[in-house]
Amino acid sequence: MKLLWLQSGGCGGCTLSWLGYEHGPLFQVLADEGVELVWHPSVSEASVDEALELISHCADGQIDLDVLCIEGSLLRGPQGTGAYHRFGGGDRSMAEWVRQIARRARHVVAIGSCSAFGGVTAAGINPTDACGLQYDGELDGGLLGPDFRDLSGLPVINIAGCPPHPDWITETLAMLARGQLSAGDLDDYGRPRFYADQLVHHGCPRNEYYEYKASAIKHSDQGCLMEQLGCKGTQAHADCNQRLWNGSGSCLRGGFACIRCTGPGFEEPGHPFETTPKIAGIPLGLPSDMPKAWFVALAALSKSATPARVRENARADHLKRTPSVKRGRK
């Protein structure tokens, strides 16, 4: 399976994450899956001229390309010309290259939330008119348009995340190489369901505090980060707390609130990342499938039943009281 990886308007963090793959030497794993890397801007030895020749061959069909991977948002400006980003100093924009190659590739894969939805590059006034491959934020469209389908009939495959977990990238490529990824394996935003059908909340080490609504008030506290510190783990589609980063970590395990980076528009939540907007004391960012009335009732009940141990530990930076040992009858 021949794979071409191009980098557009982004920071390169998705590649950096991918290179942290832990389940064996990455490029040997790819070779074992039958994946041939035609060119990648960070790891290939080809010069700019050689790379342009390879990319031209992919665009004109001389290289039968199986997968086009795009990292970073697509820059359409100024005025739809794409001239803000010309590859290798040439006279053609990256947007033009991508449009042409996407028509010939068997699959098109967006690596990271920038190429999926526009991401951080599209934030603010968006002077470069940045967008994703098939989405412009939450809206259908993007560079390729809402009706784009690859030669196999799939839409753009959005491995969203800022950055995505290295396993999400490698496992998606392996599924494509084996012919095991169909439209039914993608969610409503084109994300692979093997990770997007989970919530960051699943497996969170702070779940006991969430259940009792025992909240942290500063990041060094051990309590739940949702009520006071902006955590969106109950809304974020990813398995970050089940498939740990570097074998042991996640944002929440490091003391940082989840900012829902696998979803469109995460870069502009409308409030500071580390605050939880509320109306009448009720957080706006409730789990998407939980009615507000239920949350209010359950929160009041759970707070009244919070064990002293949980309440005390929630606003401390270490365990101050351990669970009691329950002895059986003698």
Plain-language structure description:
The structure is a single chain. The protein is α/β, with parallel strands linked by helices and 330 residues long. Helices cover 26% and strands 11% of the residues. The strands form four sheets. It has a five-stranded parallel β-sheet with strand order 2-1-3-5-9, sandwiched between helices. A two-stranded antiparallel ribbon has the order 4-6. A two-stranded antiparallel ribbon has the order 7-8. Strand 7 (135-136) and strand 8 form a beta hairpin. The longest helix is centred in the N-terminal third of the chain and has 13 residues, at 48-60. The radius of gyration is 22 Å and the shape is elongated. 42% of the residues are buried. The model has no long low-confidence stretch (mean pLDDT 93).
